[in-house]
Amino acid sequence: MTEESHALEQISVANESYPRKLGNKGQRTRQQLIDATVSLLEKNGLRDVSVADVARAINSSPATFYVYFKGVPEVVLAALENASQTSPELEALINRDWLAPGATEAALAFVECYTELWNQNRNIFAVRNLAAEEGDERFYEARMQQARPMMVAISEQVKRAQEAGRIPANLSPNSCGGTILMMLERLAAIGPVSEGKDGVSYAELKAAAAYHIAMMLGGAGTGDAA
Amino acid sequence: MTEESHALEQISVANESYPRKLGNKGQRTRQQLIDATVSLLEKNGLRDVSVADVARAINSSPATFYVYFKGVPEVVLAALENASQTSPELEALINRDWLAPGATEAALAFVECYTELWNQNRNIFAVRNLAAEEGDERFYEARMQQARPMMVAISEQVKRAQEAGRIPANLSPNSCGGTILMMLERLAAIGPVSEGKDGVSYAELKAAAAYHIAMMLGGAGTGDAA
DNA sequence: TTATCGAATTGACGGTATGTCAATTTTTTG
DNA sequence: CAAAAAATTGACATACCGTCAATTCGATAA
């Protein structure tokens, strides 16, 4: 229910994500705010972290906060800029030849690596996805951006599987990549949290996801079935 | 940052989800609150719907609201009790013989039905998942509960596929069901909203998901490939 | 060293939401 | 129709939001 900003045309300091010029101290304060926010995020959900909380955490005042950020979400957005959802290891794992034997094991390694990587930035990724789900365009964009490399890599592999006649040619590679990423993100988001909660272990879930992926990448019927 | 409730042991009216006794008028007011909340939810995310908003919407006061519910989430929880995530049609679609030909088409029909059903309660399901993701146990429980029938049905089919040797026997049926449901929920949640946003159409995504499912249920290699 | 100026901080304020009473009004019922 | 129960609400204490003007801090140059 927040309304539009007023029609003030002048310089309006905090209208950008940070003041027009940042000195040494300013950068330090800004970073402190980011760190404090991420830290608070570990214990509370995004919606339970208030500007007042963050300001208090660095022994400052809300007014100071607003010099650097428009709100808590903006801080998370800033934190996201230093977080990657891919890695050389992960790239290597996905860029293998999925038509060769051992697809199931490779897929499992891929899933492990993906969820592990995700876990390293669990706090902000979780917030990112939450905010994106809530309809915040900026977070939606951020997620898309960070997911793109994997999307491209997976699509590429799907294409190869199609060319080899392993999976139907009428499927859209991007869509296949999309569904795989849906599964992976959900899997990673669940994380070790719900370990054994629904009567299924995390390891089992990862194995199932891995099988899905191996299938979709054309690795079915290469002697991996038990 | 909200704290525990105080140690007041007496009757404490709104400590339960509704007053100890509800007369005719009370039930009406309660329902009005639920309806108003769901309605407001259509336009704003959960976090943008305040107690004040809901109260205003029925020309009442926040104080009245608090007689019936502890907060907005509780209202959604109440609304969820009258929403089902399954249907006879959907049950029929999942309970077919997936080892028989036509699995891909059947899977597509299943996906269509599922997403359609989900859409009918989009507002509260979205909120439910969001809140569950945020760590709210009650919503997590609600989601689990409402997903269970499908979970069971899918697992059953996975088991049959395993017995027929169509998919590896070392996979946990429940986990396979879980991953499928992960995909389906994400797919449904995305919905027609992001139509064509990432360069993939919703129809294509559904097709890809359907193929996943057909695969996992043992319907691969039954002559459906293009 | 100190004067200067831009960077950085904050106290204080108006607005709004939360959650809880006690007091009042409305409805039901004997 | 009068008593009892249910329902409503005004008023309040508390807390967060977002903005400014006023102030303090700190780097630089004379």
Question: How would you summarize what this structure contains?
Answer:
The structure is a homodimer of 226-residue chains. Helix content of chain A is 62%, strand content 0%.
Describe this structure in words.
Helices cover 62% and strands 0% of the residues of chain A. With 226 residues, chain A is mainly α. The termini of chain A are far apart. The interface between A and B is large, with 52 and 53 residues. Chain A binds a DNA duplex (30 and 30 nucleotides) through residues 2, 14, 19, 21-26, 29, 50-52, 60-64, 66-67, 70-71.
Salient structural properties:
homodimer, 226 residues, mainly alpha, 10 helices, 62% helix, disordered C terminus, DNA-binding
Mean pLDDT of chain A: 87
The chain pair with the largest interface is: A-B, 52 and 53 residues
Q: How far is it from the N-terminal to the C-terminal residue of chain A, by CA? A: 56 Å
Report helical residue fraction of chain A: 55-70%
- How much strand of chain A? under 5%
Question: Gyration radius of chain A, to the nearest Å?
Answer: 21 Å
Given helix and strand content, the structural type of chain A is mainly alpha
Instruction: Give the tally of β-strands of chain A.
Output: 0
Q: Main sheet of chain A?
A: none
Name the helix and strand elements of chain A from N-terminus to C-terminus, one letter apiece: HHHHHHHHHH
Q: How many helical stretches of chain A? A: 10
Quaternary structure: homodimer
